[in-house]
Design goal:
By secondary structure, the chain is α+β, with helices and mostly antiparallel strands. The chain has 2 domains: about 160 residues, D-amino Acid Aminotransferase, Chain A, domain 1; about 150 residues, D-amino Acid Aminotransferase, subunit A, domain 2 (D-amino Acid Aminotransferase, Chain A, domain 2), CATH 3.20.10. The chain is built from 8 helices and 18 strands. The strands form 2 sheets. Strands 1, 2, 3, 4, 5, 6, 7, 8 and 18 form a 9-stranded mixed beta sheet that branches. Strands 9, 10, 11, 12, 13, 14, 15, 16 and 17 form a 9-stranded mixed beta sheet that branches. A hairpin with a 2-residue loop joins strand 2 and strand 3.
């Protein structure tokens, strides 16, 4: 239950675009719902909370975020359950992580009631945009940007927090091949790899393009200190199954603490599946694939949920994993997480929050 304590001004669209959109068939991140939530930060406080029709906005080309990178975001999803209800998954965890990013990027923290009430009021208006398909969801993008109109390297005095949403299907329609990257690095110690700052994603695009030019869908990032240890898979956390144990890189200042990662670990432990969070050497995984002890590899993240990895490329060679249909752990955990979201099995961890009807 959310206590209404934030005065939100609501301006509804005169005519919804929903009737002209097949929400079960739209490409990821291209079509947006009717409304958006906005809050401003001025004179040291958050103010002017509003939901307005989704629209393009005018900006100043001197806006601080465009020049000095004070931009952070989150990603979460709402799901249509089998009984027709719409639920949002682990939203408070996204609020906590947003504030962790804000602190590191010298941006103002956002009160919980602003995040949660803004989100739920927006979803009340736009929940009918949530797909009904098995792998469909409403992808929700909260973000904060520095908006002060000024050139000069300094902490901005003004910000905007915005939530937009888009119906989405499967992020990866097929299992993926990944290429181990130990020339370019996603993050370094003392850096911002553990937060969702826009710059982390900008720096990944060129190495990702090089991998895609070679026929790989994503990158397996390694640590910048030695280049020997696996850290993440593209924009996801990564997991392996070796001798019936789930192995995943331990969290550190260079890894994002993924909410899907945490969910999979909790579900595995509930089922008494051993989980090891530790350093994961490249050689261990590749040798394990060769010998047959490493039988599964998969990325986990909000956009993809679970992305099955079919092959890992390294130094001109592909290390091929068993077919997805023969995998025991990633497929069963993926199904269990989907069944929780769809309301088919109990939500023992209380991860879901129901979206009420708009008045």
């Amino acid at each position: 239950m959310i206590t209404s304590s934030v005065p939100i001004r609501i301006e509804k669209v005169k005519h919804s675009r929903l009737s002209s959109v097949n929400v079960n068939e739209v490409p990821f991140g291209k079509v947006f719902t009717d409304h958006m939530f906005i809050a401003d930060y001025k004179n040291g406080e958050w103010c002017d909370f509003r939901i307005i029709p989704y629209q393009r906005v005018e900006i100043s080309y001197a806006m601080s975020a465009l020049h000095y990178g004070q931009a952070i975001f989150e990603g979460l999803k709402a799901y249509r359950q089998d009984n027709g209800d719409v639920v949002v998954f682990r939203a408070r965890d996204n609020w906590k992580r947003l504030n962790k990013s804000a602190v590191r990027m010298a941006m103002p923290e956002l009160p919980e009631e602003v995040f949660m009430q803004g989100l739920m009021e927006l979803l009340k208006l736009d929940k009918e945009w949530t797909p009904t398909s098995e792998n469909g969801s409403l992808y929700i993008r909260p973000f904060m940007i520095a908006t002060e109109e000024a050139i000069g390297v300094k902490i901005s005095d003004e910000y905007q927090f915005v939530i937009i949403a888009a119906p989405a299907g499967a992020y990866y329609k097929e299992p993926i091949k990944v290429l181990i990257q130990n020339t370019f690095y996603r993050s370094v110690k003392g850096g911002i790899g553990y937060v969702k700052a826009a710059g982390n994603y900008g720096r990944s695009l060129y190495p990702a393009k090089l991998a895609q030019d070679k026929g790989y869908r994503q990158i397996l990032w390694t640590d910048a200190e030695t280049g020997r240890y696996i850290e993440e898979a593209g924009t996801m956390n990564v997991m392996f199954v070796k001798n019936d144990v789930i192995i995943t890189p331990e969290l550190s200042e260079t890894l994002l603490a993924g909410i899907t990662r945490d969910s999979i670990i909790k579900l595995a432990k509930e089922k008494n599946i051993p989980v090891e969070e530790r350093k994961v050497p490249i050689e261990e995984i590749l040798k394990g694939i060769e010998e047959g002890s490493v039988t599964e590899a998969f990325g986990v993240g909000t956009a993809a949920t679970v992305a099955h990895i079919t092959a890992i490329g390294y130094e001109g060679r592909d290390y091929v994993l068993p077919p997805v249909e023969k995998r025991r752990y990633s497929t069963s955990l993926e199904k269990e997480l989907r069944d929780i979201r769809k309301g088919r099995i109990p939500d023992n961890f209380q991860w879901l929050m129901k979206v009420e009807d708009a008045v």
